[in-house]
Specification:
Length: 279
Amino acid sequence: MLRAMSSIPEPVIDAWIQHPTPAFVRHPIFASLHRWMRERGIPDEIPVEATLGALDSAGVARALVSAWSSPAGPSISNDEVAAMIHAAPERLFGVAAVDLHRPMQAVRELRRAVNDLGFKALRMLPWLWELPPDDRRYYPLYAECVELGVPFCTQAGHAGPLMASEPGRPIPYLDRVAVDFPELTIVAGHIGYPWTEELVAMARKYENVFIDTSAYTPKRYPPELVRYMRADGRAKVLFGSNYPMILPGHCLEQVDELGLDEQARRLFLHDNAARVFGL
C-alpha cells in the first residue's frame, strides 16, 4: 500500500528514475557518484521491489523508468525496463534509450519501444554520447518522436559522472533543436545547472520545452528556478528524483521549503508530468 508522507498529500509522479541493475550501477563513469552516495557495495541482483519500496516510502504514485544505452551498449535495456513495468504496470512507465551511432536502427527500436512495449518517451544523454543534442545523428529520432507523439527527454547542465559537461549546455545546443522541431516536446532534466538561467529562458520562449528537477533536492534548486516555479513557470516544471542517485523521499521532504502555492505545488508534483507524458 502506498504510504504518503504527511507533508505530501497530493499524488506524486517522479519524472526520472532508473531501476539500478548491477551493470548500470557498476559502470566506471559513476565512480564519482558512488563516492558522493557513500556506496559501499553493490549486490549481484537488485529486485524491482526495492525500487517500488523507495517509491512507497516517499508516497510516489507513478514513475517514469529510464533505459540506458551508451556507445558501449545498453546498461539497462528497453526489454529489461519492460519487464520492470510488467511487475507494476499501474505505477511504472517506460522511457526508451537507443543507439545513437546507428540512426535507422535507433528509429526502429524507438518505434518498437513505443508501439509494442508501451513506452512513454525517449531519453538520450548528451554527455554519455559526447554529442550535443543538435548533432545530426539525433534528428531522425526527433522526427520519429513527433510522429509517435512522445516527448524527447534529455539532460541539461553539467555531468555528474566523469564525463565532459559541455554537450549539456542548453544554449546553443538544445535551443537549436527547439527551433528546428517546434512540434517536439522536450523535457530537459537536471535543471540545467550551472546554466539554469539559460534553461529557464528556453522554457519561457518555447511552448513545448519543460524542465524536470531530477538529480537535485529542493534545497539545492537555484533561486532563478524557484522564482520561475512560483510564477509563470508553474506549468513548465516537473518533479524528478533521479533515483537511485537520490531517494525521492529525500527530495519530497523538502518541497515545503519552495514556498509554492497549492496550484503550483500540484502542477509540479503531478499534473505537469501527467499532461506531458500522457499518463
